[in-house]
Amino acid sequence: MKIYFAGGPGLKGKDYLGLMRGRRILFSFLERKRRVYRDLSLFDEVVLDSGAYSVATGKARVDLYEYADFCHQIKGQVAWYANLDVIGDYRASEKDLRKLEALGLRPLPVFHSGEPWEYLRDLQDEYPLIGLGFELGITGAEKLSWLEYIFHPPEGSGLNPLHKFHGFKMTARRMLKRYPFHSVDSSTWILGAKNGWVPTDTSQSNKFNYLSRLKKCELWLEFFDSLVAGA
To answer: Please, which pLDDT band fits residue 9 given cuts at 50, 70 and 90?
Structure first.
């Protein structure tokens, strides 16, 4: 299982690059102008997110043609780039997918909770790797139930549980231990450190405030390395 470390740098550029150099990262189209992403060859592997979640929450707007131009610019430097999906409207997502394909691109399609299973079956017939994302407002129990259906589908569902999936924001311990994702991404390493948390054997703790943010980030990275290695 691969893990891509996401999240805009909450550290000084040199500290961020010191931690991320030689690692897999995910960065957003919305972060494309940050200096730390000028030389993508510094990283082991890079993938691009469209910023669809920020669009869905009303925090940003993304022009499809501007996004397409950027994908063309960097497509030789990234393992994949995600579709400009519309969370909550799979038909609009598919329209954007086809528009990007018509522009000569091959974006990663994303299937979200709440969308019809028939749409996932269609995607499995056409694409070797599919992104999985959660709809807004979904509960923890609903997330697990949805993933359970994907990776352990009932007989007759027509779904292929052995298909390759990338899980967007899916690095909860229970998810990584139970579901065989091809890859996942997480910003917990930077957000957890920013909020004062560090991982423990069973959960996380905020009792280590004497540690620097940089040290907390290092602990989160070590935690995810060991978690993915054991998944």
So the answer is: low
